């Protein structure tokens, strides 16, 4: 009886040893050599896996960059720093782009606007928008269901009342919230921007102001007072050319509804 048990154990041990030897030999002859360039590129990436580069994640993007199938300046969260590292790894010149942050171009808070109806349906901004543009009197403003907050990979967005807010100090500029926004009012703007317009209402002044006290009324005072000609009024609301704006603040001073604000995204300050 004991001899049978020992024989069985011996057979199992021999099989284990043989299997181990076969696996070792197989791993030696069939192993895939790791591409060192891919490894270095991957280590340089921030690991957000946000997909802003157009690839499924950092691993896919790293492989594409290392194999020359993707430009090395597509990592938005990594911005200039990552682009420079990839430039050194690949030994090529890389054009860098200015970092951008997401900004909600709406200031239709509870004090400025009201609801024309009570929405009771499927959760989500897209669903709410299908019913008369949403519950708020201003059909151009933020609905506030939080679709953008759910899409944000770094929790940079929160909703106060019915208005979404982006913390520019946390935002990595991936643009997922902008793509998700049902109203298209989340814009990607340069992190160095000094002045912003917190409105997207294209209705005429009287109607816009009736629906939201903070709305741009298209009066053109900002346009007429801008020394750099950085502001134009199109579709009844102001648009700022960030490349021309020097942050002098004259537009802010002259805006009758105070929908134009000064910003300091680096320190998280708006207004």
Describe this structure as you would to a colleague.
There is one protein chain. With 271 residues, this protein is α+β, with helices and mostly antiparallel strands. The protein has two domains: 55 residues, Orthogonal Bundle (3-methyladenine DNA Glycosylase II, Chain A, domain 3); 171 residues, Alpha-Beta Plaits. Helix content is 34%, strand content 13%. It contains ten helices and nine strands. It starts with a helix and ends with a strand.
Features:
single chain, 271 residues, alpha+beta, 3-methyladenine DNA Glycosylase II, Chain A, domain 3, Alpha-Beta Plaits, 2 domains, three-stranded antiparallel beta sheet, two-stranded antiparallel sheet, 10 helices, 34% helix, 13% strand, elongated
Task: Give a brief description.
This protein has 271 residues and is of the alpha+beta class. Helix content is 34%, strand content 13%. The relative contact order is 0.11.
Distance between the termini: 88 Å
Helix content: 25-40%
CATH architecture of the largest domain: 2-Layer Sandwich
Strand content bin: 5-15%
Biggest sheet layout: 3 strands, antiparallel
CATH top level assignment of the largest domain: Alpha Beta
The structure class reads alpha+beta
CATH topology of the largest domain, by name, is Alpha-Beta Plaits
What's the average pLDDT? Answer: 89
Radius of gyration: 28 Å
Strand order of the largest sheet: 5-8-9
Our count of helices gives 10
Number of strands: 9
Q: N-to-C SSE series?
A: HHHHEHHEEHEEHHEEHEE
Uncertain parts? none
Number of domains: 2
- Tell the overall outline: elongated
């Amino acid at each position: 009886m004991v001899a049978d048990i020992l024989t069985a154990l011996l057979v199992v041990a021999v099989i284990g040893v043989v299997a181990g030897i076969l696996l070792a030999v197989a791993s030696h002859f069939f192993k895939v050599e790791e591409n060192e360039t891919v490894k270095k590129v991957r280590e340089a990436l921030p690991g957000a896996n946000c997909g802003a580069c157009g690839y499924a994640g950092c691993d896919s993007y790293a492989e594409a960059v290392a194999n020359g199938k993707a430009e090395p300046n597509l990592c938005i969260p990594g911005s200039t720093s990552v682009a420079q590292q990839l430039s050194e790894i690949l030994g090529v010149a890389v054009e860098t782009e200015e970092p951008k942050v997401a900004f909600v171009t709406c200031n239709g808070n509870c004090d400025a606007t009201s609801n024309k109806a009570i929405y009771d349906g499927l959760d989500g901004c897209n669903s709410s928008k299908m019913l008369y543009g949403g519950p708020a009197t201003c059909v151009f403003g933020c609905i506030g269901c939080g679709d953008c907050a759910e899409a944000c990979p770094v929790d940079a967005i929160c909703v106060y009342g019915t208005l979404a807010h982006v913390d520019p100090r946390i935002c990595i500029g991936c643009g997922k919230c902008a793509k998700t926004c049902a109203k298209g009012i989340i814009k990607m703007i340069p992190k160095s921007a000094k002045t912003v317009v917190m409105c997207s209402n294209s209705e005429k002044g009287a109607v816009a102001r009736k629906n939201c006290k903070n709305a741009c009324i298209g009066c053109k005072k900002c346009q007429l007072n801008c020394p750099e000609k950085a502001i134009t009024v199109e579709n009844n609301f102001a648009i700022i050319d960030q490349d021309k704006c020097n942050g002098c603040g004259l537009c802010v001073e002259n805006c009758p509804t105070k929908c134009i604000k000064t910003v300091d995204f680096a320190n998280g300050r708006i207004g």
